[in-house]
From TrEMBL:
Species for this entry: Enterobacter agglomerans (Erwinia herbicola)
Gene name for this UniProt entry: ganA
GO molecular function, one term: beta-galactosidase activity
SUPFAM superfamilies: Glycosyl hydrolase domain
Domain Beta-galactosidase C-terminal as annotated: residue spans: 45-100
Superkingdom to which the source organism belongs: Bacteria
Protein name: Beta-galactosidase ganA
EC number: 3.2.1.23
Annotated signal sequence range: none
Biological processes annotated in GO: galactose metabolic process
Keywords: Glycosidase, Hydrolase
């Protein structure tokens, strides 16, 4: 670990197994108290990234597997492509991606 300005940097120059990756990055996530993009359990190979413009949260839900994946989502999300309301169950095609949005208001928790 090296200090850089007010932050820290880690350089990993080794091949590590999955358990090392989970332990190392899990400890960093916990230490930095990083929030989850979406507070649901994701199947292996599915990721969610969150961006905001200050008024809305945009969720990029990506399936990095060759299998159909199903997620249980909270209510209040909208699909940015067709404007449909998305909540409950979401089916992601193999290698699929959906871009969802939700207005940011007091008490909005994803």
């Amino acid at each position: 670990m090296n200090r850089v300005g007010q932050g820290k940097a880690w350089y990993i120059a080794s091949r590590n197994d999955l358990s090392f990756q989970r332990d190392f990055y899990g400890a960093l996530i916990k230490q930095l108290a990083l929030p989850r993009a979406l507070a649901i359990d994701l199947p292996p190979g599915v990721v969610v990234q969150r961006r905001t413009d200050g008024e809305q949260a945009f969720l990029f839900v990506q399936n990095f597997t060759g299998q159909v994946q199903q997620l249980s989502l909270p209510a209040g999300l909208s699909d940015l492509i067709d404007g449909s309301v998305v909540g409950g169950s979401l089916v992601l095609a193999p290698w699929g991606c959906r871009v969802l949005s939700v207005p940011l208001t007091e008490g909005t928790s994803l």
